[in-house]
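protien #1 (seq + structre)
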Amino acid sequence: MNTHIAQYNDENSVINRLKLPVYNKATISSTLSARGPSTTFMGTKPSQSTVRAPLSNISNQPARQAPIAPKNYVAKVPISSTTQTIQAPTSVPSTFKQPQPAVRQITPAVIHVPHFVTRNPPESPKIDSQYSNDPQHVTEFTHDIMEHYQRIELKYMPSSNYMEKQAEINTTHRAIVVDWLSQLHYQWKMLPDTIYLCVNIMDRFLSIKAVSRDRFQQLAVTCLLIACKYEEICCPAIKALVNAAGDQFTVEEVIRMERIVLSNLDFNVTVATLYPFLKRYLKCGRCEENMDVVWTTQYICEMSLSEYQSLQYTPSMMACSAIYLANRLNNVENPWNRNLEYYTGRQVSDIMPCVKFLWDSLKNQNRNSKLMTVKKKFASVRRNEVTKLVLKAIASANLVL
């Protein structure tokens, strides 16, 4: 009760302080009776009647329309004695016409199509005809997919001389880090595509930004994480990657580095790496029938990942050269057959410089005792012990290119 009284007193004090008129029922009734029935109230004007017509007097006739002026009617405005009749012109004068936007001459972009894409020999081996009923081979789109890879492989290649901009790391550090990444890739049984994409992302980032030696391994772990998210079905936890690196950095630092890497690469992760070309050319050359050739080719390609100088060659060139070298190491009668010439568009003379580079790099890495991951991986019986095959060929020195 006291609360209501206090609230009432507060309201009265506010009204008195603002000097607002206080209305009650008696005041409103006396005011309305004094003004009479024609007083404006609730939106009605004095000239309006507040009495509504009964519904029976309302007919269904349409409302009256305003008179419509004749078609050629011209309004005359008596502004002065000299005022003339103004008539709207039938056409807009040229001085008042809206300027037409200039037609921009667009020069079509000239896309360089390699000769091995447009070459169309008279007779095709039709290597995909036997897989036409298998939807997993997508034979209807194979040509378009490979042509697309051929067009973009140069676009997403890292710089071949980015080490000149790096102050604290060199090619040796890169080789050691790539070998360590290959070890994680092998232990966690990841897809072959993952390691190629990981190294591509790392090299492309190093082509843009300089990295200190302390952050180099953190960058490598981050690139492996991005590649796993893109390629793998089950991506390893970030904590597991941090533990594999000896807890030299935290999970938050890896997430921060991931954001830096992707923003600098404009989130371009769909690139043409070496592995799609390798799979396609092994199939076209019918090399899949000889597993020694398949494992030897993969051994050569994974060994080339740690070679910094391999960045001067395109992924398709590296795949062609690895297949030719593997055929030579396995004593294949025709190491570069007609199918490979047709689908790659390259002759033996085109790939020979890259073949010699791969052979020299294998011999140099044989002397390096630090890079052992790929050698141990392909020394297993499951991979036909191709490491012994390569080492035997290096020791015999019978291969002449």
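ok now protien #2
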Amino acid sequence: MIRVTGLMTNREVIASHDQAIDNLYDVDRQISSGKQFETPGDAPGRMGESLRINRNLSVTRRIIENAREGANRLKLMESILDQVGTLLIRAKGLAIRMANDTMTAEDRRVGAQELERTLEQVVSLANTKAGEQYLFSGTNVTRPPFHFTDPKLNPGSVAYLGNHRSETVQQGFSPRQREAGLMPVTEAGDRILGDSAADPFGNKPLPVMRRFLLGLLSNDQPQITRSIDELDRTIHSVTERAAVLGTRERAIRTTVDRLEKYTISQKTLKSQNEDVDVPKAVSKLALNQNFLALSTKASRDILRNTQNVLFS
């Protein structure tokens, strides 16, 4: 019984010695790499958690990139509509002058030339691109949304060539619900500015400006007078639409800020899950070195005692 117990003790001491060597290797590897694990076999639970965090970070990064691009588009579109509003104010001022009884047909013909230049500026702004994409063409972003149909035969006639679909960006993200609402970041230009070719009697800026232009060319004072109120309404509608785009842009910026904070928190969790606490690891290394020294001494004593028994 004494011999069996001694043999078991010897085996346990040797196993502890081997375990101390393995522990020392693991701690040394962690300090060298700065990571608690390198392969799934080192720590399956921690590796799974890191993979989950990496997926969240990847999805969030894409959402942030798309949201920033969408916010930039909306900011540019708001600025463009502000400029269109300024041009409409100029057109209204021209209408007030041209409605005066003292204006002759020649005066109004000259006024028509001024209005044509203003209309060209409006169309040019409406055909603005962000990068390689037109802003006011819905999702048909590769071609200009507006063009003059035939300036000679149909003065002031502008047709819309875009579509009425919208690109969107996500307003939020969480691991449990990846889609937390979509925000449109494109606009169908005819819904803001109209289409004077397809809808010449519409109340949007392009049809109103065309009727004003025709009134000037035909010296039609009643039509010119009506254009004053019509232009005033278009100024309000464009200003209101610009405000809507500005509200969207600010909402998306808020989303980006929130997701950037979420990204920081996820990176912190990843660091806590993967990175080695170096001071703690060094302390553990010293402890394992001491234990290894003790187990080595115990192993030598066992070997010496075994030799004494065998050769005594």
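The chain is about 70% helix and 5% strand.
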